[in-house]
Specification:
CATH architecture of the largest domain: Clam
CATH topology of the largest domain: outer membrane lipoprotein receptor (LolB), chain A
Oligomer: single chain
Number of domains: 4
Radius of gyration: 34 Å
Strand order of the largest sheet: 20-19-18-17-16-15-27-26-25-24-23-22-21
Shape: globular
Structural class: alpha+beta
Helix content: 25-40%
């Protein structure tokens, strides 16, 4: 029962506000201070026996949790509805679940499900574009979102009650009639490529990505990931077919909560989705996981870091296992935050880890994974591995204390109430249980099951389900700095995490094509100033002002390039954050960041630098006779009214690129080929102009660049020095 607060009269603050005069307080302050001192003396003089330990405190039992029970309705076309009325705010929300995930996409199109899920929303419908939907929703403060994850798809809608008749039809329209425009598909593909290009940036992400492959298998639907080739292979027709095959009303569930009458809301949804025809769809079972307990030692070498990410474990479980409740308690005893053994021993007592954690995970419909993991200094990697293994082993041999048991159970039971702190959680949980075929009271069964877990239960499941001698280990780090060789733990399998680039195939060339290619390249060399002048160049220094076009606007940077033939180059970029130096010497490459930190470049970035070097005109003509270089003529092509001769040039061991020669002057006009960007591989082209003579050699002073057909920047050369004097340490790696 709520009561009104008592009025104790004006406070000192309110008195001052009302009168503008501060009350007299010196005497009152002295009295108050004296009272506090006396109180402290009294309490300090109380016998210790009068003070209770926190464990002896007694509290009345908590009230039962009262939660709304959703109403379940099945529409004629098979859509399953869960509805909860909530009149507290004039809002209506809808959460949807679809029986489709990335597990259902073909292996050669990995990434298709995620792109489909995104473009359903961003691409709009056949009657309303995605941009028009954005404008409409922003005008009324509403939300519509869609996505497809690993084993299910989802959608979300939120709107004021007065606007639901506008927003609900928009959701229905994009779900039933998605437009899948090409530009929005390409935008999602760019995002996917960008994610691929950065996937080896974070050691922890690398460790868990590769660990999932160790547990489920590299080609498993539960562990595979997109590559550039699988993203490039996706077409609009694939999205249309994927939507047609999987998005059906009898493969759909809606949870609705908010300010509505249940019968009226059922009618609204039925009317809006009434044209979505039932398909007789039966969701297929997920693939089984084939797992054999064994041990292995795996290394992902990452030389540019000074700490290791260590993960070891094996397969986990499923939630319908009768031992699930005891396994949850066991997991908390081993790795449950500050009170877990891993944190107390590996981190606090032994000081071996910056972070240590673990989980015995259980999924609804396929096995989860068990792991213990930590981030540790490179110099303590082996010690950390042994400590983690030891703690897993102790769970199967040592006693479990009642205190550990109670702390683990309280961790779950004390947070149980938070399962009901929003209507969305309640309704999403009910849909989840039906989606995976679990009883609607599974959460209550879990609570009851955990309350009944005993010390003997935990000891039994630890011995039965943990296999400390058959765990798969993966370490991401610089093994040169480890305290022991990884081979101390077994035969080491080094995992190659190189990101596979799309293969650029050169067309088969005839002898005539090769002969004509060589002839045209020689004629072009003469047009530039003569082959003797070009091959006499031993070094080159170029400064330029480069304008880079980015989504957030243009950025202008200064660039200095230094080349020493035959195999050295250094590029210095003057960015707002400071200078960045990138150096290439034969097959070695490194970068120095604005803070002065030096990092070796991965092979792919090194090869990208080598490809860019070969596309430097002076370097190409200077190295025309290099072993392994092939040049072939592929025909004539007209570019913006200009006739060009097209040469396909393949540097030794690298991807080919095209060089377009002006048919009249024989000066290089354009070069084009695959290149690496922050968004992954792109089709890059550069148009050259403003030729000027430098020491008898004609060179372009302007290049206009494009990526995937869109302007990406411009380079305006400031100075060119031929055969400048180069300091002896110009290409030396910093200490």
């Amino acid at each position: 029962m709520m009561t009104e607060p008592k009025d104790h009269g004006p406070t000192r603050t309110s008195y001052a506000l009302n009168t503008g005069v501060e009350p007299m307080r010196s005497t009152r302050l002295k009295v108050a201070t004296l009272g506090l001192m006396l109180a402290g003396l009294v309490f300090s003089a109380m016998p210790v026996a009068a003070q209770k330990d926190y464990t002896e405190l007694q509290f009345p039992p908590l009230n039962d949790i009262a939660t709304p029970t959703p109403t379940r309705v099945v529409l004629d076309n098979g859509i399953i509805l869960y509805l909860v009325e909530d009149r507290r705010l004039p809002m209506i929300n809808l959460s949807a679940r679809f029986g489709v995930g990335s597990v259902n996409e073909p292996a050669e199109r990995i990434g298709l499900a995620g792109i489909t899920g995104a473009v359903i929303r961003t691409g709009g419908s056949t009657s309303m574009s995605g941009d028009e939907i954005d404008e409409t929703l922003e005008g009324i403060g509403a939300t519509v979102e869609t996505q497809i994850g690993l084993v299910s798809g989802s959608a979300f809608m939120s709107a004021l009650k007065d606007n639901v008749d506008t927003v609900l039809p928009i959701l229905a329209d994009i779900l039933m009639h998605p437009a899948f425009p090409e530009d929005k598909i390409e935008l999602e593909k760019v995002t996917a490529r960008s994610t691929i290009s950065r996937r080896n940036d974070d050691p922890t992400d690398m460790a868990f990505r590769e660990y999932r492959k160790l547990i489920y298998g590299a080609e498993s639907v539960y562990a595979r990931h997109a590559e550039y080739a699988t993203i490039d292979a996706i077409t609009r027709d694939d999205l249309v077919a994927f939507h047609r095959d999987w998005m059906h009303p009898d493969n759909t569930m809606f949870g609705v909560w908010g300010d509505f009458d249940t019968d009226e809301m059922v009618k609204k949804i039925s009317d809006v989705f009434g044209g979505w025809e039932k398909a007789g769809f039966v969701r297929p079972d997920l693939p089984d996981v084939d797992y054999t307990y064994d041990s292995s030692v795996n290394l992902v070498r990452k030389d540019d870091i000074n700490q290791s990410t260590v993960v070891l474990g094996h397969i986990g479980g499923v939630r319908d296992n009768p031992d699930y409740f005891a396994l949850r308690v066991m997991n908390d005893i081993l790795s449950g935050g500050f009170s877990g053994r891993l944190f107390r021993i590996v981190r606090s007592e032994q000081g071996l880890a910056y972070a240590v954690f673990g989980i015995y995970s259980a999924n609804y419909n396929f096995p989860g994974i068990f792991y213990v993991a930590c981030m540790t200094s490179s110099e303590t990697t082996a010690q950390a591995i042994r400590s983690l293994r030891h703690e897993v082993g102790r769970m199967t041999t040592d006693e479990i204390t009642e205190e550990e048991l109670n702390l683990a159970k309280e961790s779950f039971l004390n947070s149980f109430v938070f399962n009901f702190d929003s209507r969305r959680e309640i309704i999403d949980r009910q849909m989840t249980y039906e989606y995976y075929g679990y009883p609607q009271d599974f959460l209550e069964k879990t609570k009851t099951g955990i309350e009944k877990v005993t010390v003997e239960d935990v000891k039994r499941v630890a011995r039965e389900y943990l296999q400390p001698d058959k765990m798969r280990l993966i370490v991401v780090g610089n093994d040169q700095d480890f305290d022991e060789e990884m081979s101390a733990f077994g035969e080491v399998n080094e995992i190659d995490v190189t990101i596979a680039l799309p293969v650029v195939e050169a067309p088969e060339a005839t002898e005539d094509d090769v002969a004509m290619g060589r002839e045209l390249l020689m004629r072009s060399a003469e047009a530039l100033g003569g082959i003797e002048a070009l091959t006499a160049i031993q070094s080159l220094r170029v400064t330029a002002e480069v304008t880079v076009i980015q989504p957030m606007g243009e950025m202008v940077i200064g660039v200095e390039s230094l080349v020493a033939f035959p195999d050295k180059s250094k590029t210095t970029m003057q960015t707002p954050m400071g200078d960045i130096d990138m150096t290439l010497i034969d097959d070695q490459a490194w970068v120095v960041d604005p803070m002065g930190n030096t990092q070796p470049l991965p092979d792919q970035q090194r090869d990208s630098m080598r490809e860019e070097l070969w596309r430097n005109l002076v370097f190409l003509y200077n190295r025309m006779d290099a072993e392994g270089l092939t040049v072939q003529h592929t025909g004539r092509e007209e570019i913006e009214g200009r006739a060009t001769e097209v040469l396909l040039i393949t540097p030794p061991g690298l991807n080919p690129f095209k060089l377009y020669l002006d048919a009249e002057t024989m000066l290089p006009y354009k070069k084009a080929g695959q290149s690496m960007s922050q968004q992954g591989p792109v089709e890059a082209e550069s148009t050259m102009s403003d030729y000027r003579e430098v020491e008898g050699i004609k060179l372009p002073f302007k290049e206009s660049m494009k990526q995937n057909g869109n302007p990406s920047g411009e380079s305006v050369t400031q100075t060119i020095e031929i055969n400048p004097e180069i300091p002896a340490d110009a290409f030396a790696a910093p200490e």
